[in-house]
Protein 1
Amino acid sequence: MSKLAQFAAGYPYVKAVENLAHEYLLHDLGKDKNSLWSFHFHDHHKAAVKYGMFDPAYFEPWWLNASRAKEVGSLAGAFMVHLPLTTKYPYFVAGIGIGIVEYYYKHKKSHTNPEWAFEHLQNHVKHHLLDQDKYWGVTSGLIDRIVGTAPKM
Protein backbone atom coordinates (compact mmCIF):
# COMPACT_ATOMS: atom_id res chain seq x y z
CA MET A 1 0.00 0.00 0.00
CA SER A 2 1.41 3.39 -0.95
CA LYS A 3 2.37 5.99 1.65
CA LEU A 4 -0.45 8.27 0.56
CA ALA A 5 -3.01 5.47 0.67
CA GLN A 6 -1.89 4.48 4.16
CA PHE A 7 -2.18 8.03 5.45
CA ALA A 8 -5.47 8.53 3.62
CA ALA A 9 -6.83 5.47 5.44
CA GLY A 10 -5.44 6.34 8.89
CA TYR A 11 -6.82 9.84 9.16
CA PRO A 12 -10.50 9.04 8.44
CA TYR A 13 -10.17 5.90 10.57
CA VAL A 14 -9.53 8.23 13.53
CA LYS A 15 -12.70 10.18 12.70
CA ALA A 16 -14.79 6.99 12.77
CA VAL A 17 -13.20 5.81 16.03
CA GLU A 18 -13.72 9.29 17.49
CA ASN A 19 -17.46 8.99 16.89
CA LEU A 20 -17.70 5.42 18.19
CA ALA A 21 -15.62 6.07 21.31
CA HIS A 22 -17.51 9.27 22.06
CA GLU A 23 -20.89 7.59 21.86
CA TYR A 24 -20.23 4.16 23.34
CA LEU A 25 -17.38 4.71 25.81
CA LEU A 26 -17.75 8.31 26.93
CA HIS A 27 -21.54 8.44 26.95
CA ASP A 28 -23.09 4.99 27.15
CA LEU A 29 -20.54 3.70 29.68
CA GLY A 30 -19.73 7.16 31.03
CA LYS A 31 -23.24 7.81 32.35
CA ASP A 32 -22.47 5.28 35.10
CA LYS A 33 -20.70 7.31 37.80
CA ASN A 34 -18.62 4.24 38.73
CA SER A 35 -17.25 3.87 35.19
CA LEU A 36 -13.70 4.76 34.19
CA TRP A 37 -15.29 6.92 31.48
CA SER A 38 -17.63 8.89 33.80
CA PHE A 39 -15.28 11.92 33.83
CA HIS A 40 -16.44 12.91 30.37
CA PHE A 41 -20.15 12.90 30.97
CA HIS A 42 -20.27 13.99 34.62
CA ASP A 43 -17.43 16.53 34.69
CA HIS A 44 -16.79 17.78 31.18
CA HIS A 45 -20.38 17.88 29.93
CA LYS A 46 -21.60 19.47 33.14
CA ALA A 47 -19.09 22.31 32.78
CA ALA A 48 -19.65 22.80 29.04
CA VAL A 49 -23.42 23.07 29.50
CA LYS A 50 -23.15 25.31 32.56
CA TYR A 51 -20.69 27.73 30.92
CA GLY A 52 -21.84 27.65 27.27
CA MET A 53 -18.99 25.46 25.92
CA PHE A 54 -16.34 26.87 28.26
CA ASP A 55 -14.67 24.25 30.49
CA PRO A 56 -12.41 25.74 33.19
CA ALA A 57 -10.57 22.42 33.55
CA TYR A 58 -8.73 23.16 30.29
CA PHE A 59 -6.88 26.00 31.97
CA GLU A 60 -5.25 23.63 34.45
CA PRO A 61 -2.28 21.46 33.52
CA TRP A 62 -3.70 18.14 32.36
CA TRP A 63 -1.62 16.16 34.85
CA LEU A 64 -3.19 18.07 37.77
CA ASN A 65 -6.79 17.50 36.71
CA ALA A 66 -8.15 13.94 36.91
CA SER A 67 -10.63 14.39 34.04
CA ARG A 68 -8.02 15.91 31.76
CA ALA A 69 -5.45 13.25 32.72
CA LYS A 70 -7.93 10.54 31.73
CA GLU A 71 -8.57 12.27 28.41
CA VAL A 72 -4.86 12.58 27.60
CA GLY A 73 -4.16 9.06 28.84
CA SER A 74 -6.97 7.66 26.69
CA LEU A 75 -5.68 9.42 23.59
CA ALA A 76 -2.10 8.27 24.24
CA GLY A 77 -3.34 4.72 24.82
CA ALA A 78 -5.38 4.79 21.62
CA PHE A 79 -2.26 5.76 19.70
CA MET A 80 -0.01 3.22 21.42
CA VAL A 81 -2.37 0.36 20.62
CA HIS A 82 -1.67 1.03 16.94
CA LEU A 83 2.14 1.23 17.22
CA PRO A 84 2.73 -2.44 16.28
CA LEU A 85 1.29 -1.59 12.86
CA THR A 86 4.21 0.77 12.16
CA THR A 87 6.41 -2.08 10.91
CA LYS A 88 4.12 -2.68 7.94
CA TYR A 89 1.96 0.46 7.72
CA PRO A 90 3.90 3.41 9.18
CA TYR A 91 1.96 6.08 7.30
CA PHE A 92 -1.36 4.63 8.43
CA VAL A 93 -0.15 5.03 12.01
CA ALA A 94 1.09 8.54 11.18
CA GLY A 95 -2.41 9.40 9.95
CA ILE A 96 -3.80 8.10 13.23
CA GLY A 97 -1.30 10.16 15.21
CA ILE A 98 -2.08 13.35 13.33
CA GLY A 99 -5.81 12.74 13.74
CA ILE A 100 -5.40 12.26 17.50
CA VAL A 101 -3.29 15.40 17.88
CA GLU A 102 -5.83 17.35 15.82
CA TYR A 103 -8.62 16.02 18.03
CA TYR A 104 -6.87 17.11 21.23
CA TYR A 105 -5.98 20.55 19.88
CA LYS A 106 -9.45 21.31 18.52
CA HIS A 107 -11.30 19.84 21.49
CA LYS A 108 -9.25 21.84 23.96
CA LYS A 109 -9.55 25.02 21.89
CA SER A 110 -13.32 24.60 21.62
CA HIS A 111 -13.60 24.64 25.41
CA THR A 112 -11.17 27.49 26.05
CA ASN A 113 -12.41 29.70 23.21
CA PRO A 114 -16.14 29.07 22.71
CA GLU A 115 -16.41 31.78 20.04
CA TRP A 116 -13.92 29.80 17.95
CA ALA A 117 -15.97 26.64 18.52
CA PHE A 118 -19.19 28.33 17.40
CA GLU A 119 -17.47 29.23 14.13
CA HIS A 120 -15.32 26.13 13.48
CA LEU A 121 -16.79 23.16 15.37
CA GLN A 122 -20.54 23.61 15.05
CA ASN A 123 -21.12 19.86 15.30
CA HIS A 124 -19.40 19.78 18.68
CA VAL A 125 -21.28 22.86 19.92
CA LYS A 126 -24.57 21.22 18.94
CA HIS A 127 -23.54 18.09 20.83
CA HIS A 128 -22.96 20.02 24.05
CA LEU A 129 -25.67 22.67 23.84
CA LEU A 130 -28.43 21.19 21.68
CA ASP A 131 -28.51 17.37 21.94
CA GLN A 132 -25.91 15.42 23.89
CA ASP A 133 -27.21 12.18 22.36
CA LYS A 134 -26.32 13.22 18.80
CA TYR A 135 -23.45 14.92 16.96
CA TRP A 136 -20.69 12.55 18.15
CA GLY A 137 -17.96 13.94 15.90
CA VAL A 138 -15.83 16.51 17.66
CA THR A 139 -13.45 17.51 14.87
CA SER A 140 -15.80 16.76 11.99
CA GLY A 141 -19.48 16.18 11.42
CA LEU A 142 -18.93 13.99 8.34
CA ILE A 143 -19.42 10.61 10.03
CA ASP A 144 -22.51 11.95 11.83
CA ARG A 145 -24.00 13.06 8.52
CA ILE A 146 -23.23 9.68 6.92
CA VAL A 147 -24.77 7.59 9.72
CA GLY A 148 -27.64 9.98 10.53
CA THR A 149 -26.59 11.15 14.00
CA ALA A 150 -26.53 14.79 12.88
CA PRO A 151 -30.19 15.61 12.23
CA LYS A 152 -30.95 18.15 9.54
CA MET A 153 -31.92 21.45 11.12
Protein 2
Amino acid sequence: MILVTESSRRICGCFLHCENPCVRGFHSVRSIFGNQKRKRRRETMMSIIEVYGGMLLRALGQTLLLTLLSLLFAMIIGMIFGLMNVGHNRVLNLIGTIYVDAVRGVPLIVLAYFIYFGVPAGMQGLGFSSFRLNALQAGTAALSMNCGAYMAE
Protein backbone atom coordinates (compact mmCIF):
# COMPACT_ATOMS: atom_id res chain seq x y z
CA MET A 1 0.00 0.00 0.00
CA ILE A 2 1.38 3.37 -0.97
CA LEU A 3 0.34 6.58 0.65
CA VAL A 4 0.06 9.26 -2.04
CA THR A 5 -0.47 12.80 -0.87
CA GLU A 6 -0.41 16.13 -2.62
CA SER A 7 2.88 16.98 -0.89
CA SER A 8 4.52 13.79 -2.20
CA ARG A 9 3.31 14.66 -5.70
CA ARG A 10 4.92 18.09 -5.38
CA ILE A 11 8.25 16.54 -4.35
CA CYS A 12 8.11 14.22 -7.34
CA GLY A 13 7.22 17.01 -9.72
CA CYS A 14 4.63 15.07 -11.69
CA PHE A 15 1.25 16.25 -10.50
CA LEU A 16 -0.91 14.48 -13.07
CA HIS A 17 0.40 11.05 -13.94
CA CYS A 18 2.35 9.82 -10.92
CA GLU A 19 0.44 6.93 -9.38
CA ASN A 20 3.47 5.53 -7.58
CA PRO A 21 5.65 8.41 -6.37
CA CYS A 22 8.26 6.08 -4.89
CA VAL A 23 9.21 4.90 -8.38
CA ARG A 24 9.53 8.36 -9.88
CA GLY A 25 12.06 9.97 -7.56
CA PHE A 26 12.98 10.87 -3.99
CA HIS A 27 10.00 10.99 -1.66
CA SER A 28 9.31 11.15 2.00
CA VAL A 29 6.52 8.63 1.49
CA ARG A 30 7.68 5.02 1.14
CA SER A 31 5.95 1.82 0.27
CA ILE A 32 5.40 -0.68 3.05
CA PHE A 33 6.55 -3.43 0.69
CA GLY A 34 9.60 -1.57 -0.71
CA ASN A 35 12.16 -3.46 1.39
CA GLN A 36 10.55 -6.78 0.53
CA LYS A 37 11.03 -6.07 -3.19
CA ARG A 38 14.74 -5.43 -2.64
CA LYS A 39 15.07 -8.60 -0.58
CA ARG A 40 13.23 -10.60 -3.27
CA ARG A 41 15.57 -9.15 -5.91
CA ARG A 42 18.62 -10.27 -3.88
CA GLU A 43 17.11 -13.72 -3.41
CA THR A 44 16.46 -13.97 -7.14
CA MET A 45 20.06 -13.01 -7.94
CA MET A 46 21.38 -15.57 -5.47
CA SER A 47 19.19 -18.28 -6.96
CA ILE A 48 20.47 -17.40 -10.43
CA ILE A 49 24.05 -17.67 -9.20
CA GLU A 50 23.29 -20.97 -7.46
CA VAL A 51 21.71 -22.46 -10.57
CA TYR A 52 24.04 -21.10 -13.25
CA GLY A 53 27.22 -20.41 -11.25
CA GLY A 54 29.09 -23.47 -12.49
CA MET A 55 28.24 -22.73 -16.10
CA LEU A 56 29.29 -19.09 -15.68
CA LEU A 57 32.64 -20.14 -14.19
CA ARG A 58 33.26 -22.58 -17.05
CA ALA A 59 32.41 -19.83 -19.54
CA LEU A 60 34.80 -17.49 -17.74
CA GLY A 61 37.53 -20.12 -18.06
CA GLN A 62 36.85 -20.55 -21.79
CA THR A 63 36.89 -16.78 -22.28
CA LEU A 64 40.22 -16.41 -20.49
CA LEU A 65 41.68 -19.32 -22.47
CA LEU A 66 40.47 -17.80 -25.75
CA THR A 67 41.92 -14.43 -24.76
CA LEU A 68 45.33 -15.76 -23.78
CA LEU A 69 45.70 -18.03 -26.81
CA SER A 70 44.56 -15.30 -29.19
CA LEU A 71 46.94 -12.80 -27.65
CA LEU A 72 49.85 -15.21 -27.91
CA PHE A 73 49.20 -16.06 -31.57
CA ALA A 74 48.36 -12.44 -32.42
CA MET A 75 51.72 -11.31 -31.09
CA ILE A 76 53.49 -13.89 -33.25
CA ILE A 77 51.46 -12.94 -36.35
CA GLY A 78 51.89 -9.24 -35.65
CA MET A 79 55.63 -9.62 -35.20
CA ILE A 80 56.04 -11.58 -38.44
CA PHE A 81 53.96 -9.25 -40.61
CA GLY A 82 55.29 -6.16 -38.85
CA LEU A 83 58.84 -7.20 -39.69
CA MET A 84 57.74 -7.87 -43.26
CA ASN A 85 56.41 -4.32 -43.49
CA VAL A 86 59.59 -2.75 -42.13
CA GLY A 87 62.04 -4.77 -44.21
CA HIS A 88 63.68 -3.57 -47.41
CA ASN A 89 62.47 -6.48 -49.54
CA ARG A 90 59.62 -5.27 -51.77
CA VAL A 91 57.97 -8.69 -52.07
CA LEU A 92 57.79 -9.15 -48.29
CA ASN A 93 56.65 -5.55 -47.95
CA LEU A 94 53.83 -6.20 -50.40
CA ILE A 95 52.77 -9.43 -48.67
CA GLY A 96 52.68 -7.71 -45.28
CA THR A 97 50.74 -4.74 -46.61
CA ILE A 98 48.19 -6.95 -48.37
CA TYR A 99 47.67 -9.05 -45.24
CA VAL A 100 47.22 -6.03 -42.99
CA ASP A 101 44.90 -4.22 -45.37
CA ALA A 102 42.85 -7.33 -46.21
CA VAL A 103 42.35 -8.54 -42.66
CA ARG A 104 41.74 -5.08 -41.21
CA GLY A 105 39.22 -4.38 -43.97
CA VAL A 106 37.09 -7.41 -43.08
CA PRO A 107 34.82 -7.17 -40.01
CA LEU A 108 35.72 -9.60 -37.26
CA ILE A 109 32.33 -11.32 -37.34
CA VAL A 110 32.71 -12.02 -41.07
CA LEU A 111 36.19 -13.40 -40.48
CA ALA A 112 34.90 -15.61 -37.66
CA TYR A 113 32.07 -16.95 -39.81
CA PHE A 114 34.47 -17.60 -42.69
CA ILE A 115 36.88 -19.51 -40.49
CA TYR A 116 34.19 -21.49 -38.67
CA PHE A 117 32.09 -22.41 -41.71
CA GLY A 118 34.19 -21.68 -44.81
CA VAL A 119 37.53 -23.24 -43.93
CA PRO A 120 36.07 -26.68 -43.02
CA ALA A 121 33.90 -26.62 -46.16
CA GLY A 122 36.92 -25.75 -48.28
CA MET A 123 39.04 -28.45 -46.68
CA GLN A 124 36.29 -31.02 -47.20
CA GLY A 125 36.10 -29.93 -50.83
CA LEU A 126 39.83 -30.66 -51.13
CA GLY A 127 39.33 -34.19 -49.88
CA PHE A 128 39.84 -33.87 -46.13
CA SER A 129 36.42 -35.28 -45.24
CA SER A 130 36.92 -35.37 -41.48
CA PHE A 131 38.29 -31.83 -41.07
CA ARG A 132 36.39 -29.83 -38.43
CA LEU A 133 37.06 -26.83 -36.23
CA ASN A 134 35.47 -26.42 -32.84
CA ALA A 135 34.36 -23.01 -31.60
CA LEU A 136 37.49 -22.40 -29.53
CA GLN A 137 39.83 -23.16 -32.43
CA ALA A 138 37.89 -21.01 -34.89
CA GLY A 139 37.54 -18.16 -32.41
CA THR A 140 41.24 -18.27 -31.56
CA ALA A 141 42.18 -18.22 -35.25
CA ALA A 142 39.82 -15.35 -36.08
CA LEU A 143 40.86 -13.20 -33.12
CA SER A 144 44.54 -13.96 -33.70
CA MET A 145 44.37 -12.98 -37.35
CA ASN A 146 42.43 -9.80 -36.61
CA CYS A 147 44.52 -8.65 -33.66
CA GLY A 148 47.74 -9.68 -35.41
CA ALA A 149 46.86 -7.43 -38.35
CA TYR A 150 46.31 -4.52 -35.99
CA MET A 151 49.57 -5.26 -34.18
CA ALA A 152 51.47 -5.44 -37.48
CA GLU A 153 50.29 -1.97 -38.40
Protein 3
Amino acid sequence: MAIFVGGTGDANKLEDYEEGSFSPGMTFGGGNTNMSLESMDGKYTKIGRHVFIHLRFRMTGKGDSTGELNFTGLPFAVSDIMSTTAVQGGFFLGFLSGHASGIHEVAVYPWEDTSVFKVYKRANENSAPAVVQHSDIVSTFDGRLACFYMTNA
Protein backbone atom coordinates (compact mmCIF):
# COMPACT_ATOMS: atom_id res chain seq x y z
CA MET A 1 0.00 0.00 0.00
CA ALA A 2 1.29 3.47 -0.87
CA ILE A 3 0.72 6.78 0.89
CA PHE A 4 0.69 10.01 -1.08
CA VAL A 5 1.97 13.22 0.51
CA GLY A 6 1.25 16.58 -1.13
CA GLY A 7 -0.22 15.15 -4.33
CA THR A 8 -0.96 11.94 -6.19
CA GLY A 9 2.02 11.77 -8.60
CA ASP A 10 4.88 9.28 -8.35
CA ALA A 11 7.11 11.96 -6.78
CA ASN A 12 4.63 12.18 -3.88
CA LYS A 13 4.33 8.43 -3.27
CA LEU A 14 5.76 6.84 -0.13
CA GLU A 15 5.61 3.07 -0.39
CA ASP A 16 8.46 1.90 1.82
CA TYR A 17 8.76 2.36 5.57
CA GLU A 18 10.65 -0.05 7.83
CA GLU A 19 12.09 -0.09 11.36
CA GLY A 20 14.35 -2.70 12.83
CA SER A 21 17.49 -3.82 14.58
CA PHE A 22 20.76 -4.96 13.03
CA SER A 23 23.99 -6.49 14.28
CA PRO A 24 26.87 -4.20 13.39
CA GLY A 25 30.48 -5.26 13.59
CA MET A 26 33.77 -3.48 14.17
CA THR A 27 37.03 -4.36 12.40
CA PHE A 28 40.61 -3.20 12.07
CA GLY A 29 41.88 -3.76 8.53
CA GLY A 30 38.97 -6.11 7.87
CA GLY A 31 39.65 -8.35 10.88
CA ASN A 32 38.67 -8.54 14.53
CA THR A 33 40.99 -11.24 15.92
CA ASN A 34 40.73 -11.36 19.74
CA MET A 35 38.64 -8.15 19.82
CA SER A 36 36.35 -7.89 22.87
CA LEU A 37 33.01 -6.18 22.34
CA GLU A 38 30.93 -5.61 25.43
CA SER A 39 28.13 -3.93 23.51
CA MET A 40 27.27 -3.54 19.85
CA ASP A 41 23.70 -2.57 19.10
CA GLY A 42 22.14 -1.07 15.98
CA LYS A 43 18.67 0.31 15.22
CA TYR A 44 17.46 1.69 11.90
CA THR A 45 14.53 3.38 10.22
CA LYS A 46 14.21 3.21 6.43
CA ILE A 47 11.92 5.64 4.65
CA GLY A 48 11.99 5.18 0.89
CA ARG A 49 15.72 5.11 0.01
CA HIS A 50 16.78 7.04 3.16
CA VAL A 51 18.26 5.00 6.01
CA PHE A 52 18.67 6.43 9.52
CA ILE A 53 20.98 4.51 11.89
CA HIS A 54 21.53 4.66 15.65
CA LEU A 55 24.54 2.73 16.91
CA ARG A 56 25.83 2.03 20.42
CA PHE A 57 29.25 0.39 20.79
CA ARG A 58 31.69 -0.49 23.56
CA MET A 59 34.95 -2.25 22.72
CA THR A 60 36.83 -3.34 25.86
CA GLY A 61 39.77 -4.95 24.04
CA LYS A 62 40.97 -3.99 20.56
CA GLY A 63 42.57 -7.35 19.83
CA ASP A 64 45.37 -8.25 17.43
CA SER A 65 44.05 -7.14 14.02
CA THR A 66 45.61 -3.91 12.76
CA GLY A 67 44.76 -1.34 10.14
CA GLU A 68 41.91 1.10 9.69
CA LEU A 69 38.83 1.04 11.92
CA ASN A 70 35.48 0.36 10.24
CA PHE A 71 31.96 -0.36 11.42
CA THR A 72 30.46 -3.14 9.31
CA GLY A 73 27.12 -4.84 8.77
CA LEU A 74 24.86 -1.90 7.93
CA PRO A 75 21.31 -3.14 7.26
CA PHE A 76 21.33 -1.86 3.65
CA ALA A 77 24.19 -1.19 1.22
CA VAL A 78 25.16 2.45 0.79
CA SER A 79 24.30 3.69 -2.70
CA ASP A 80 26.56 5.73 -4.96
CA ILE A 81 24.21 8.64 -5.64
CA MET A 82 26.88 11.37 -5.75
CA SER A 83 29.55 10.32 -8.25
CA THR A 84 31.92 13.11 -7.19
CA THR A 85 32.50 11.67 -3.69
CA ALA A 86 32.72 8.30 -1.93
CA VAL A 87 31.08 9.77 1.20
CA GLN A 88 27.36 9.18 0.82
CA GLY A 89 25.78 10.48 4.02
CA GLY A 90 26.27 12.23 7.32
CA PHE A 91 26.50 11.56 11.02
CA PHE A 92 26.18 12.85 14.57
CA LEU A 93 28.60 11.52 17.16
CA GLY A 94 26.80 11.76 20.50
CA PHE A 95 29.57 10.41 22.73
CA LEU A 96 33.06 8.98 22.26
CA SER A 97 35.83 7.90 24.63
CA GLY A 98 38.95 5.76 24.49
CA HIS A 99 40.81 7.36 21.59
CA ALA A 100 44.35 8.72 21.68
CA SER A 101 45.06 12.26 22.79
CA GLY A 102 45.82 14.65 19.96
CA ILE A 103 42.66 13.76 18.03
CA HIS A 104 40.62 16.92 17.51
CA GLU A 105 37.57 15.31 15.93
CA VAL A 106 36.32 11.96 14.71
CA ALA A 107 34.03 11.51 11.70
CA VAL A 108 32.10 8.43 10.61
CA TYR A 109 31.18 8.17 6.92
CA PRO A 110 28.90 5.71 5.12
CA TRP A 111 31.00 4.50 2.16
CA GLU A 112 29.55 4.01 -1.33
CA ASP A 113 28.75 0.54 -2.63
CA THR A 114 29.49 -1.06 0.78
CA SER A 115 27.73 -1.79 4.07
CA VAL A 116 30.52 -0.01 5.96
CA PHE A 117 31.07 3.17 7.99
CA LYS A 118 34.66 4.36 7.61
CA VAL A 119 36.09 6.22 10.63
CA TYR A 120 38.29 9.30 10.18
CA LYS A 121 40.13 11.67 12.52
CA ARG A 122 41.65 15.12 12.38
CA ALA A 123 44.48 16.37 14.60
CA ASN A 124 43.19 19.95 14.49
CA GLU A 125 40.67 22.07 12.61
CA ASN A 126 43.14 22.71 9.77
CA SER A 127 44.47 19.17 9.26
CA ALA A 128 43.36 16.80 6.53
CA PRO A 129 41.23 13.81 7.58
CA ALA A 130 43.06 10.50 8.08
CA VAL A 131 41.66 7.05 8.85
CA VAL A 132 41.48 5.97 12.49
CA GLN A 133 43.97 3.14 13.02
CA HIS A 134 44.35 0.38 15.63
CA SER A 135 47.03 2.51 17.37
CA ASP A 136 44.55 5.41 17.79
CA ILE A 137 42.46 3.37 20.24
CA VAL A 138 44.13 3.38 23.65
CA SER A 139 41.53 2.09 26.10
CA THR A 140 37.90 1.03 26.24
CA PHE A 141 36.43 2.51 23.04
CA ASP A 142 32.89 3.59 23.83
CA GLY A 143 30.43 5.62 21.81
CA ARG A 144 27.03 6.34 20.37
CA LEU A 145 26.35 7.71 16.92
CA ALA A 146 23.51 8.51 14.57
CA CYS A 147 23.95 8.49 10.81
CA PHE A 148 21.94 8.77 7.63
CA TYR A 149 22.58 7.58 4.10
CA MET A 150 20.85 6.56 0.87
CA THR A 151 20.39 3.03 -0.40
CA ASN A 152 19.13 1.47 -3.61
CA ALA A 153 17.32 -1.27 -1.66
